[in-house]
Every structure is written in C-alpha cells, then in structure tokens.
Amino acid sequence: MQGRIKQLEDQVSCLKQELEDLAVYQQDKDDIENEYFLSQQRFKTIFEKSIIGYKIINDDLQIIKVNDALLKMLGYTQNEMLTKRITDFAQAEFVAHWKELQHELWTTDLPSFTFDTCLIKKDKLTIWVRVHSIKIDDNGEKLGFTVLQDLENNLR
C-alpha cells in the first residue's frame, strides 16, 4: 500500500511540474503572439502614414497593396492600381529596365535594387522617382516591398 501511495504522489508531482512547464510555455507563446501583433501594427502604421510611396507586389509582379502617399503621388485610386504592375505606369523607355531588375530580384540572390526612373501620373504628366525594391518572405510567400520617393518634390 505504501508503494502505491508513493507512486501516486510521484505522478501528482510530475503532473504539477508539467502544469508549471505548460504555464511557462503558454506565457512565452502569449508574449511572442503579442510582439508579433505589435510588430504588425507598427508596420501598418508606417506603411499607411508615411509621406513616401510604398507598394507591395506578389510573385506575379502584381501590385497587391499601395499606400495613400503613392496614390497621391501618382493621382490614381487604389482600385486603379491594384492587380496592375508598376510597369503599367512606366514610360516605355524604362519598362525593359524595370523588367530586368524585377526578374533579377525574383530569380537570383539579389536582396534589393535601387534606381531612378520616370512614371506616368494619371494626369499624363511624368514624375521622377527613386525606387528601392526589397524581396521579402511572408509566411513562405515571396513578396516585393517597394519604396518610391518623389525626386522632384523631395519629401514635400
């Protein structure tokens, strides 16, 4: 009987330790999830509130997200830009360069590229911009994050 009691006490002790370990694990998991949420909120605020134009493209080079600064810079609405490619807004003589750089970004170890180019605004005027594109991994999906800075009205 004493042996059985000792065995049950040991099992209870093990279960208590497992519960303590689980509580620590859950707290760590909650902390990580909270930090992830805060990180997402910070990125969203920077993306949406910046005075510099940002866009995100998928691996098919389609624009999937734009910020208000880029919409204002080019004069288009979000619906007019989404699912299009940035080359749809480029002057003809710059399209080949865009495509070459985008191909290199997506098919090589090149982490980013920067160049100056000319884009066509909705009102058909042109605007010189500095482009910096970065390849990012988002949960296994390859995306391109691009910063477009108006060179003519440098940070108005």
How would you explain this protein's 3D organization?
The protein contains four helices and five strands; from the N terminus they run H-E-E-H-H-H-E-E-E. By secondary structure, it is α+β, with helices and mostly antiparallel strands. The longest helix is centred in the N-terminal third of the chain and has 48 residues. Strands 2-1-5-4-3 form a five-stranded antiparallel sheet. The protein is elongated and about 90 Å long. The model has no long low-confidence stretch (mean pLDDT 89). The protein has two domains: 49 residues; 100 residues, PAS domain (Beta-Lactamase, 2-Layer Sandwich).
Short description:
The chain has 156 residues and is of the alpha+beta class.
In angstroms, what separates the terminal alpha carbons? 84 Å
Which radius of gyration do the C-alpha atoms yield?
Answer: 25 Å
Oligomer: single chain
What is the number of E strands? 5
Portion of residues within helices: 40-55%
For the residues shown, what is the average pLDDT?
Answer: 89
Low-confidence stretches: none
